[in-house]
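[retry 2/3] Enoyl-CoA hydratase/isomerase family protein: previous attempt timed out, resubmitting with same input.
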Amino acid sequence: MSNTDSADAADVPAAATGFTAVTDGKVLRVTITKPKRKNAIDYDTMVALGDVFLAAAEDRAVRVIVLTGEGGDFCTGADLSASVDEARRGITSDMVMDAANRLVRAIVDAPVPVIARIRGAAAGVGVGIALAADLVYASEDSYLLLAFINIGLMPDGGAAALVAAAAGRPLAARMALLGERLPAPAARAAGLCTAVVPDNELDDAVAEAVAKIAAGPRRALELTKQALNQATLTALDAALAAEKAGQTELLRSPDFAEGATAMLTKRKPVFAD
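[retry 2/3] Enoyl-CoA hydratase/isomerase family protein: success.
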């Protein structure tokens, strides 16, 4: 990973990986760069993003990481359009789930605070990626969406634990079982967001938090984050394991084939009895 004080330095070209990772002084800025796909991410991008967060643990200069998406959305989950090519390359559903779980775990385990900056949609595994962050800043018109049930799947990316840890089981069940959008103001009221601000104030709100953390003591930040995670995310590993077991089964099911086809062809799915 690049370790430089220049904001012009990126670790990997966006065209090759679907994201950029730029070190700017004490701040690592990670941006998913697939706006034409609403920042849906494929297997390669998940693996490479996990590498970036794991490498950040070794960079003692970094005090804070900002994770966001280019354009109008944060991340709309796994890119189903990449699945055919991934299958051709021998990438299995187990591998995809392992990559998603590794990324979420790497964000949670990053030794310094991670700030998710959300505009537009955080959907699918994008919800888990966002809520794995320590601080979540969202624009008023953004939303969280666990729409897995609508295509014959179940939540993944640790969402079962991450939503419940912050907002409780009733809201987690509502999001997972009904597959409805949760607008950012409601997410803030439920404790899923640190702050929700008008779109034109989002960057300023994030910058203020970044500046405060970047000026803080690294070791105290590390130990504080560890203590918070140990107190609130005790169920994360079990949730990740359960999600992998369930999702790998569902990804091979006729219901998912029907749900994915219906989504891509913009029609209502008809699931098996």
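[retry 2/3] Enoyl-CoA hydratase/isomerase family protein: The CA atoms of residues 124 and 146 lie 5 Å apart.
[retry 2/3] clearing retry counter.
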